[in-house]
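Quick check before the chapter quiz. The format below is the same one you will see on the exam, so make sure you can read both the input and the output lines.
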Amino acid sequence: MLNLDKELIVLGAQVAGKKEAIELVGDVLVRNGYIDAAYVASMNAREAVANTFLGNGIAIPHGLPEDRELIKKTGVAVLQIPQGVAWNPGETVCLVVGIAAKSDEHITILTNLTHVLDDPDTISRLSQTLDPQDIINVLSGSVGGISKAAPEMDLTGFESVEVAITGEHGLHARPATFFVDVASEFSADVYVEFDGRTGNGKSLASLLKLGVTAGQKVRLHAKGKDGKSALAALKDAVDAGLGEESEEKMEASQLEHCWEPKSVGRIIPGFKASPGLATGPIRQFVHERIIVEANAKDPAHEKSSLSQAIAAAKVNLQNLYDEVRAKAGAGKAAIFRAHIAFLDDPELRAEVEQLINAGKSAGFAWRQMIEERVHALEQHNDSLLAARAMDLRDVGRRVLKHLAGTISDEPFVPTEPVILVAEDLTPSDTANLDPALILGLCTAGGGPTSHSAIIARSLGIPAIVAAGPSVQEIADGTIAIIDGDAGNLYLDPSREDQDSAELARTALDEMRNQEFNHRFKPAITLDDHRVEVVANIGKSEEAEQAVNAGAEGIGLLRTEFLFLGRETPPDEEEQYQHYSDMLESLNGLPLIIRTLDIGGDKEVSYLDLPAEDNPFLGERGIRLCLNRPELFLTQLRAIYRASKQGLVRIMLPMVTTLEELAAAKRLAEKARIEVGAEPVEIGIMVEVPSVAVMADVFAKEVDFFSVGTNDLTQYVMAIDRLHPTLAAQADSLHPSVLKMIDMVVRAADEAGIWVGVCGGLAGEPLGAVLLAGLGVHELSMVIPSVAAIKAQLRNIKIEDARKLAQQALKCSSVKQVRKLSF
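Here is the expected output.
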């Protein structure tokens, strides 16, 4: 435990606000050699993403995880403010306990501090005392206010699971906050039991009171309708490090463009949504305020108005669908077809008309019923369903505009390039943004898998999401730097930082231009080993784009674009024409066509797919195709017909058993004979452990393997790669994933077939080098990465890559792998 002395206690302070209080307590830690002065800014920055108010007049400010290197040693300082200072609305603080945590030595002090939270007499005494020893005695646990262990709880009916706190510093403020955030997503009661005491899992103070240090085991208890789900999510969160590791990864990713700020007023971290670096003024996005009358006298007229408004909204949505489809493809535009379906909901229409019959106006009734549904979705335990609340609100506003008596404010149209900040953006909002005027996009809510994030990436706008409500308080005109690669928004950067960020962006552009100028050179290493670099594409026109970007073929054609956003499946002739057009663009380069890979996670009306609790574990990929042989045969016939026009290979997705493979090959042979085509190479995606561990058997039945690292990682790690809190842990550079790939490569070499990788790892610099070192023959990636990866491979020796790959296989964690240099 830490030893406190009087130099760390400041009595009788008078401050103008929270920022000054944090700076004063931080200065105490600086003067006593615990932190660098720069860590004080990090303590202020932390307030933007986490409320450090502990309760009952006490706050515990601390810095951001990525600034740990600024801590010299673990220490705690206390600032007493007898008159109190406003911390957040409704919160007054008299004791500011500043924390610099390099180890878990401070946990006991925190535990003792939480014991006085429910002792107002002790807190009142400490906030007024003239003797610093009084505060030292309480924090050290020697006297006063230390409550006894909590009484034993009746845990009848609770489900339980035991977990180990794996973080380096135990259950201190940051991981405890993360735990509370996860627990609060569920309605179930959650408790944490440790050393005979029990704390409320939704209370930061209650958790800190337990004093759990690194390596200790705790038992989690949950009771309620979603108790099992809560326990599963909390266990996953604890096993993944309660956010500590993922935050470190965010820092590491920032280094890719070799830029870091030196002096900024405030750092707001979020989730990476779209890459890029930009500097400019902040502009808040504000929706128009739609005003409607509450009551109406003519129900028939109101119902007619409602019908006309819905019809007009459908026309708007169809026009928007056509526009986005032309710019970004059917897949990204499909959400607007789903919006049209919202408007056809008979239950919604009936409930609105019921309110109209009760005397309400169409606008009032529509808005009330939409808001009820939005609120219900926002409370849903399924994060993806909760994210659809924004879509429903978007649809509701479209209709409401046609019913409005008054619309105040002008539509949002920036007149200069800006970094746009919003609570969240609907797909319609994002699709209508002009990339020439939007330098970057930062939202308080949303998620990296939201439709808005997807469309932002397609428009090439740097974006971060889920940055917290504080971003909405940023004044228009505030100069900021948005870093979509690191997931950070930097406010009030110094002129030096603005200049250096612009230089970094320019240097990155120049490097990309040089790589692009040499894009047609093959990826031949310095010791004459060639790696084929090809592209992943998802629509017809991208074939030509890939060739122009330097790709040596198409390693993955996602054929889903042909099947989504329509009412009927594409016929054989339509598919054949698309494949033939792509082969013409490739002019002899290979085209690997992945057969339909779709499941319950996609909305395809004509397939009538049932909702699934775990769509990634359900009827998808080859399973769906084998269950719908006519759909599958139609696609296979189109592929074989197109094979007469160029070099085509067939790739089967989500194969898990030899029986599935055999059945698919039988159907492929049937289709080939029907159209009179020559045989083509048939390979499979390696996406599940069952195939990887039996790769030696599968290798005898196929012509090639292509490893889908995104899915393989989520199945190996048992982490949903779209999970809002755990997705960052699904890292394809984890040694377990690399060992799976190594197993596949060795089996392929033994059988004399080739191996490609078409997941995200192939387009990552370190990933590409390690894959080449493991013996992967082909790397397939998104088009913008082709030139850079080819340049990377031309600057290494394959022998060095092989040595590096062997080092990676011996690592015990993904952290160790990412520290490898080449």
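If your answer matched, good. Residues 299-328 form the longest helix (30 residues).
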